[in-house]
Every structure is written in C-alpha cells, then in structure tokens.
Specification:
By secondary structure, the protein is of the alpha+beta class. The protein has a single domain, classed as Hotdog Thioesterase (Thiol Ester Dehydrase, Chain A). It has helices spanning 24-39, 44-49, 122-129; strands at 2-8, 54-64, 73-84, 87-96, 99-111. A hairpin with a 2-residue loop joins β4 and β5.
C-alpha cells in the first residue's frame, strides 16, 4: 500500500540559494497523498459530494535531512501506517536517487461539512483493511 509520485523541482520551488524552500516539501507530500488516494480508486471531490467527508491535516512531524535543488527529480512516497475511527496516519518521504531528503508522519482527520470529525468513509476503511501497514 505504498505509492510513489514523481515531482520535478522548478525555480518557483527554490529560495535565493537555489535550494527547495522548506514549506514546499509540505506541498510535495500533499500531492503525494492526493495521488495515493487516487491510486486506491478514490475521487476526493466525489467523496465530498457524497457526504463522505474531506481529509484535513491534523498533525505533521517532519524531518528535513538534505536539500533538494532546482531541476532535481524527486520521488514522493506515501505509505499507510495506521488508522482510528476518524484518523488516518501516513508515512511520507521525499527522495532523490534513493537518498531520503525529507520524511514525515502525517495524521489526517476526516471532517464532515460542519467541520467536525466523522468516521472514515467505509470504502476507504475497506481498502486500507485489505492491505498490511508498511
């Protein structure tokens, strides 16, 4: 239940030193999570429309290990770790040529239209229950 998404570093992703600006790693892993859900067969807009809720980041524990630079090809890996009734925990990393540059544990919460937590959608639970944690 691991998914990898490729991202190229553009000038807009870097600071004056040509190094990826730290906050952009959060954007990269956001894209990775969206692609992970899509690869599992879930359309987040359709889930919202069907009243199944939306995912919001509750917590991120991040480690910046090495810099990425302009034109690097990065691999954003997303892996299921665990879940509770309304929470989903994922492990994510950003790598370049096999070297880990950034890693994070991300806790998502499923929210109803009211903004209150709600149980994870049954289809998501079925999918993650079929696969072992990484």
């Amino acid at each position: 239940m691991t998914h990898t998404h490729k991202i190229r570093v553009y000038y807009e992703d870097t600071d004056l030193a040509g190094i990826v600006y730290y906050a952009n790693y959060l954007k990269f892993i956001e894209r990775g999570r969206s692609e992970w859900l899509r690869a599992l067969g879930f359309d987040q807009a359709a889930m919202k429309s069907a009243g199944q809720g939306v995912f919001a980041v509750r917590r991120v524990v991040a480690d910046y290990l090495a810099p990425a630079r302009f034109d690097d090809l990065l691999h954003v890996t997303t892996a299921y770790a665990s879940h509770k009734p309304a929470r989903l925990v994922l492990h994510q990393s950003v790598r370049r040529e096999g070297k880990t540059l950034f890693q994070a544990e991300v806790t998502l919460v499923c929210l109803a239209d009211t903004g209150r937590p709600k149980p994870l959608p049954a289809p998501v639970l079925r999918e993650i229950s079929q696969k072992p944690a990484e």
